[in-house]
Amino acid sequence: MAKIFDKPCNKWIEVPSETYAEYMKYCNTHRKRMQAHSLCRCPKALWWQCDTVCADCVHRNDPESVSLDEQVTSELCDEKILCWTS
After folding, report:
1. pTM value?
2. Which residue has the higher pLDDT, 9 or 69?
């Protein structure tokens, strides 16, 4: 038997070893994908807390967002207009 931490209930749940391995594989894959996209900054010591619910996580790294209403300037453009580059 292995234990999985349930963050919403703040308690440990005993599960069979196969279930634990499946769950941890899913969580690790999700966390690594989020880290690759710079959306997760969870330290290695706290990986056991990852439950793939990034919206509630304190280690979530929000990307910088730009408003569509904001004018963008570029050296290639003379005016303040939105410029697309290929």
Report:
1. 0.64
2. 9
